[in-house]
Specification:
Blueprint: H1 17-22, H2 25-32, H3 52-60, H4 66-71, H5 79-82, E1 92-95, E2 101-102, H6 107-117, E3 123-124, E4 135-141, E5 149-150, H7 160-179, H8 183-204, E6 207-211, E7 224-227, E8 233-238, H9 241-249, E9 251-255, H10 263-282, H11 288-310, H12 313-325, E10 330-336, H13 339-349, H14 355-365, H15 371-388, H16 409-432, H17 440-449
Parallel strand pairs: 3-10, 4-8
Antiparallel strand pairs: 1-2, 1-7, 4-10, 5-6, 6-9, 7-8
Length: 450
């Protein structure tokens, strides 16, 4: 007895072929980015995914030849930017020894700053000192210098069992169409599986690469600061130039054997375009049962792509940067009560720099230039440089609150307030910074010997 196809005499036609080429394209491209994070993910794309036309258009813009530019017009993008491995704008960097200023760093500095923002506060000093707008500073001691080019190790794919769901769903719906001899829908599901699988494999052949420029011999240390947009978060970097440059000027990229034309990716775009046109013409020719099977395969694939696109890929990149490339540098995060306290604390952390460099950094972070601020800055730089040279400071109060410095009464009151903020920074520094140059015990011994 011949099998009777379900819904054979139904007059209803889904006509979903046009929607299938556009719906879910952004999600599919986002899901494809996981092939460069998980090991073996490039072998798991054999399912009928929606959004073939949108995917073809996005991939086609990677091709850099007249042929591909004619088929897929638009601005050529870098593969790393398309798959969100590059392109983010990072914070401002200022080197205290070299004087280097990078107004906008790149993607890796952005990842670095986000990781520091998520670092738990290890020292909070809000209860003991004046508080206006609490701010945080993260101190990172960089001890490892990455090679100018490295290939980070990918993560083991914990989602591999889930990949079998869309693959089996596409295979089952394809077989069901074959059983009931709906060859139009059978061939379209099969073509979708092949085009998606081939595209996933070709995209997965890109080698995930980290690069940074090699610094010149004899350059000074790379100590400096990263300042987030809005100036509400500061990161102090302490380390050699070879350890800091990967953060400020390094980048992630994808290396393909076909670059710079990327003909293999262009071929995938062409295959996906053919799939879209074929679905547009042939799916409506199938039976209602076959169309339902086609729709089911797309729905399951869309759900799986949505799950992959929901994964926090930035957190994986941050783990690669900190754990593999920078070899887990030590981090400490401080919460201070005022911006003035934070700036003085930053100067103390970088106090081995030249006085002129410290003054420039101070002026950039606190651009106030009234008389009281000028007096305060001069005294602070003097005290900070004393710490940098290893000189002993007086016990208790570091600043002379009684001196009027020729200021008016109102200005003297403000100066005393600013001295209080600076005093708080000195106390926190001598209390918690393990790299302080002269301990209180050493200062006491020096005073007795004198």
């Amino acid at each position: 007895m011949a099998n009777t196809i379900p819904f054979q005499h139904s007059q209803f036609n889904l006509d979903i072929s046009g929607v299938a080429g556009f719906f879910g394209g952004d999600v599919a491209v986002s899901a494809m980015a996981t092939v460069h994070i998980y090991q073996g993910r490039k072998w798991l794309g054999w399912y009928n995914t929606p959004g073939s036309y949108e995917i073809a258009k996005r991939y086609g813009q990677l091709g850099r030849s007249r042929f591909w530019d004619g088929l897929y017009p638009g601005i050529n993008v870098d593969p790393a930017v398309l798959f969100e491995l590059d392109g983010a704008k990072g914070p401002r960097y200022q080197g205290v020894h070299s004087g280097t200023i990078i107004a906008r760093t790149g993607h890796l500095a952005h990842l670095f700053m986000q990781e520091c923002k998520d670092t738990p506060i290890s020292h909070s000093r809000l209860k003991r000192y004046r508080v206006t707008s609490p701010m945080c500073v993260t101190v990172v001691d960089l001890h490892h210098q990455p090679d100018p080019q490295e290939h980070p190790r990918l993560f083991r794919d914990s989602t591999t069992p889930l990949a079998s769901i869309p693959i089996m769903a596409s295979l089952a719906t394809c077989i069901a169409c074959a059983v009931y001899k709906d060859w139009f829908c059978f061939s379209m599901i099969l073509l979708g599986m092949v085009s998606s699988g081939v595209s996933c494999f070709v995209i997965g052949t890109g080698v995930f690469t980290f690069t940074h420029p090699k610094h010149a011999n004899g350059v000074p240390r790379g100590d400096g600061i990263l300042v987030s947009e809005g100036d509400n978060e500061v990161v102090v970097l302490r380390g050699s130039e070879g350890a800091v440059t990967p953060i400020t000027r390094g980048r992630f990229s994808l290396k393909f054997s076909s670059e710079p034309e990327y003909h293999n990716i262009g071929g995938c775009s062409l295959l996906l375009t053919v799939q879209f046109l074929a679905q547009l013409l042939l799916v409506p020719q199938g039976e209602i049962f076959g169309q339902i099977m086609f729709l089911c395969s797309l729905a399951v694939s869309w759900g799986y792509n949505s799950y992959l696109s929901s994964l926090d890929r930035e957190s994986f990149q941050r783990r690669i940067l900190f754990d593999q490339l920078l070899q887990k540098p030590s981090r400490r995060k401080f919460e201070l009560g005022t911006r003035t306290t934070l700036v003085v604390f930053v100067l103390l952390l970088l106090s081995t720099a030249e006085p002129a460099a410290l003054r420039k950094l101070l002026d950039d972070l606190l651009p106030n230039e009234t008389l009281v601020w000028i007096v305060w800055k001069g005294v602070v730089i003097e005290k900070v440089c004393s710490v940098g040279r290893g000189m002993c400071l007086p016990q208790g109060l570091v600043f002379d609150y009684a001196a009027d410095h020729g200021l008016k009464p109102n200005d003297r009151a403000l100066l005393q307030t600013l001295f209080g903020d600076a005093q708080a920074a000195f106390e926190v520094y001598f209390e918690v910074d393990s790299r302080k140059y002269v301990s209180k015990t050493a200062c006491n011994g020096a005073s007795r010997n004198a």
